[in-house]
Every structure is written in structure tokens, then in C-alpha cells.
Amino acid sequence: MVDPALLNGTAATRWTNLGWWDAPVGAGSPAQRASYPDAARTLAQRVGEVAGLRAGDVVVDVACGYGDSLALWVTAFGAARVVGVEPDPAVGAAVRARIAAWGLADRITVIPATAETFALATHAPDATAVVCVDAAYHFHTRAAWLRGVARAAAPGTRLGFSDLAVTGAATRTLTAAEGVRPRGLRWGAARAGIPAENLWTLDGIPAAMGAAGYEAITVMECGGPVLDGFCAYARRARGPWLRHPALGGWRALATAWLLGRVRPMLTMGCVGARVR
Predict the structure, then answer these.
(1) What are residue 253's phi and psi, to 5 degrees?
(2) pLDDT at residue 166 in the model
(3) SS3 category, 164
(4) pTM for the whole structure
(5) Are strands 108-111 and 129-132 parallel, antiparallel or unpaired?
(6) What are the tens digits of pLDDT across the range 147-187?
């Protein structure tokens, strides 16, 4: 696990997502100059936008990490109440301490659960939106999570999440018995903790979401600002990361290396939908 202090530096934030870096990525570009906390906040902001978050919402944030997104839903979007879902007890305790320090304990709660075990009908029966920033591709499986939310949430509940997807160039070989590309993609996904069942395509997302019980589905491709941007950031940060293996620096570099290796086969999308 990568320590958020390695990514966020001296900032008070504890983001751990890939970030949304202003394109194009190149020497002297805005993406090269952006700070990690700003890029990470921007990715969360995009997820909130595709979910259509607005004042008064009751938001469920699945795999909320160290909680920066929980505060964002309140301060930037005006959510009335936020329920964070976090399976790691130590992380959950750290988030609760941060929530208390922010003075938001009356509006934000954290439930110890995984995406698959969280009981939405018990902990947030009045939820108006469900969000997930940069984590759904790790769920076992994403399809099961989507079906579970659609069954438990009220019709009209909005959904927003960022997710990895396979590019069109790779789809024709994904099921082939031979070929370096599908093997390389599956190898990289396995090393990154991504189940093979979660390797869907951008073009296939609307049909998959529709079958799971959603409507008004939108998909915004963002592989450039997210994946290319993070890899460019990793190149800039490789020196400090190499010097801090105990904080997960080598793991962060390995993640960037894997993304770079399979990048022609992977992209990122921000997905918005509504429970039917």
C-alpha cells in the first residue's frame, strides 16, 4: 500500500487516486506543473459532476480511502449527509479522526465494509447518489457491485464513478488463445489486483450498465488526463519515490510502470447513470 504522505507531500490532504491532470502532457505543460493534491481533487470533482451531485444530496462514497472526497461532497457540492464505505479498520479510524477535526461529524459517517458487503438499505436507505473515485475496477466484481446498488437503491438514485476500460484496439484479441497483447493486459491487471472480469470496454459500458438496471448512462473518456498524466507525474516523482520504499514508493513506481506498459490497451472513463 502506498502511504498517502508520499503522494500528497506537505499538503494536509490524503488523496490516493490517479488524479486528473490537465492535458496535453508534455514538458512545460499544465499537467507537468500540476500538484498531485490538485489533480486528485479534480478527478473526484469530475466524478461528482457525472453523478450530478447537488445541494441536499445524501451521498454514499464507496471505497472512500482517507476521506478527502467525503469532505468534497459537502464543501463543493453541498451534500446534506455523506456515508463513506471503507474496509480497512486503520484507515477508517484515521478518517473518523479527520472528520472530527473538520467539524463535520454531524454530516459524515464511515461504515466498515467492502463494496460487496455494504448494506445500502440499512445504512443509507435515503441515499440519492452513490459515487466511487478510482476503485471500482478492484471490486470482486464490478458487475456484482453495480447490480447490488441497483437492487438496493431507490429508482432515480444517481451513480458516478471513474473506471479503467479496455481500448478498442485491444478488444479484438481479448479472447484470443494466443497473442502478447491480451496476455500482457491480463498479466498487468492481475498484478494490479484487477479481476479479469472487470476488463470491460468503453463502448460496452452502456449495455452492461443497462443490463444491471441503470438508465441515462453517460461515459466520458479520460485516459489522457488521468493515465498519461499520472505516468508523467511518476516520472517527475521517481527520485523521492525510490528513496522511500517504506512508504510504498517502489509500489507507486511499479503501478506507473504497469500503466505505461499496458497503456495502449487501457483507458479511463468517468461514468454517470441513474437507477432505473
Answers:
(1) -65, -40
(2) 92
(3) strand
(4) 0.92
(5) unpaired
(6) 999 999 999 999 999 999 998 655 544 443 333 345 667 77
Place of cell 511518476: 234
Report residue 22's pLDDT band, with 50, 70 and 90 as the boundaries: confident
Asked whether the beta carbons of 267 and 203 are under 8 A apart, the reply is: no
- Residue 62 φ then ψ, to 5°: -85, 130
Contact 226, 19 (CB under 8 A): yes
Element containing residue 275 per DSSP (H, E): strand 266-275
The whole-number pLDDT of residue 178 equals 30
Q: Which CATH number describes the domain made up of 4-275?
A: 3.40.50.150
Tens digits of residue pLDDT in 99-123? 999 999 999 999 999 999 999 999 9
Q: What angle do CA 197, 202, 208 make, to 5 degrees?
A: 55
What are the helix (H) ranges across 58-161? 68-75, 89-102, 120-123, 142-152
Please tell me the distance from the alpha carbon of residue 194 to that of residue 189, in angstroms, as a whole number: 5
Q: How far is residue 133 from each of residues 51, 128, 208, 213, 246, measured CA to CA in Å?
A: 11, 17, 19, 21, 25
Give the three-state DSSP class for 130: strand
